[in-house]
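REQUEST ID: PR-0412
SUBMITTED BY: lab tech R.K.
PRIORITY: routine
TASK: structure prediction, single protein chain
INPUT:
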Amino acid sequence: MMHMNHSLLILCAVLFLSAGVGLPASEALAADAPASFSVARSLLVSSSSPGNVYLGGASVVVTAPVKGDLLAVGGGVVIASPVTGDGLILAGSASSRAPVAGDLRAVGGSISVEKPIAGDLVALGLSVYDSGRTEGSVFIVALNASLANGAAGPVIVYGNNVSLSGDFAGDVSVVAGSRLTLAASTTIAGRLSYEAPEMADLPASAKVIGGVEYKNISYLPNAEASRVLSFVSVGLFLLVRILGALILAGLLTGLFPGLVHALVERVSTDSPRNMLLTLLLGFAIVVATPILFAVLMLTFVGIGIALLVLISYLLLVFLALIYAGILLGGVFARRYMRRETALWHDGVLGMLALSAISLIPGVGLLAVLSLTFFSAGALLTIFFNFAFSGSD
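STATUS: complete
OUTPUT:
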């Protein structure tokens, strides 16, 4: 686990350093100094390092100044001491409680910035709260975003609920899925451009010197759009279901060719009477098992047995449906490709054919059910013979 965390840190460090080309001389000297790598479940950094610092752990707390860049990856990350270079935080919960002399980039569930950022701020999370004034530009994507102390540079925010307060020296652009809120005495020296389902309630004490541009947007689809979305959703569901069935059919055919051979052998050698009996056996099991399950659930003693019966029943029905398509592919391979052994692509072809047959109105459903019942009966017979073949 520690080796994997080291690899992740090194990879992120390479990306992080590549973004720092063109650093000032002081930061370049820090980058040339030896870097510090630390990985632990609970990590407390209380001693300063002359170069860049790369940290990883379930809990990471930095209480010593960082002379270079800082990369921290963890479940919870707290930066409680100044960072001379840039900061990159990847965490479930990220908190920057000390000034950052460079840029700060944070990705996490909950992100809190409490002290000034001399460079740019980029934050992506579920919740972002910024009460430290950023001297550069601000870019935030969050479900709930709040800037409580303004910003010196331009601000771009994408969120559901967006709250602004403080003094903003540049332009502010907001896309809010729900609403935009401005606190009292908020001042925006540039232009406020925002998109939201409803207009923001601007307090009388708030000032927007560059003017306000509002665009109404609604994320609720109308009746026609809802109809189109429903058709697209159904189509995607069917596509994913068919693709999943094709992949599973190919895997089962390739992994268990003997079972496929036994199924195809029954179709090729059994008489029509035996094939009908196999189909009726599968039909009886598929129909009668839910009744047996309901009866067992009526008694306290039978609840455990009923659950086992239900699990076995669901597994049988699922396998019967998949092997119905595999059976089609195996029969095709034997009769037309002259191959005794079915390959994985035969299973995929058979499942594709079964999916096409199911789309035929009326007849398609009957054909799929018949093949599934036959497959269920054949699987039960094969499993029974395999389980009790050594009892003689």
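NOTES: The chain is about 45% helix and 25% strand.
REVIEWED BY: pending
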